[in-house]
Amino acid sequence: MHVKAKTVAFGGLLLAMTVVFMALGSIIETSTLFLLAAASFFVGIVVREFGLKTGGAFYIAAVLLGFITAPNKFYVLTFAAMGLYIWGIEAVWRWLEKRPGMLQRHKVFWISKYVIFNIVYIPIVFAFRDLLFAQSVSDALMIGVVVGGQIGLFIYDRAYDYVQAHIWGKMRGRFL
């Protein structure tokens, strides 16, 4: 019973911080992407500490609470895409851990990261073209946006790895 209570309490604390970061992203416009990325990193922390099911429940709760509390719903959708990516790569990592004999697991993991990202990113860019851009954009500019997203993914993913390894790795013992 103690373990479940600890999981719920810690998950609730991280959920509160996630929603606060989403709301702050609406208020502090210059740091929106940073705050949304930081909020999505909490999904990865919950997955790594408590498993995919608990991480999935945390992710759904964060998105629902974000829609209820955050002033800008578009930022909640951005968080939802980022959090889904984090949950997806953690699921792939766990799948690969169960297959130690698989060749080139590192390459499979990186390819999986870009596949998961593009499954989310490319449909959003093309389906919400009018919402994302104030005026009509050319196909060449859309290709530039897609390529820029790949570069952004690389930076976002490196930041996530750094947070998990260095920041959360040092703080983990104090909370759990």
From TrEMBL:
Domain of life: Bacteria
The keyword Transmembrane helix is annotated on this UniProt entry: yes
Transmembrane annotation, as ranges: 12-38, 50-68, 74-96, 108-128, 140-156
Keywords for this protein: Membrane, Transmembrane, Transmembrane helix
Protein name: Uncharacterized protein
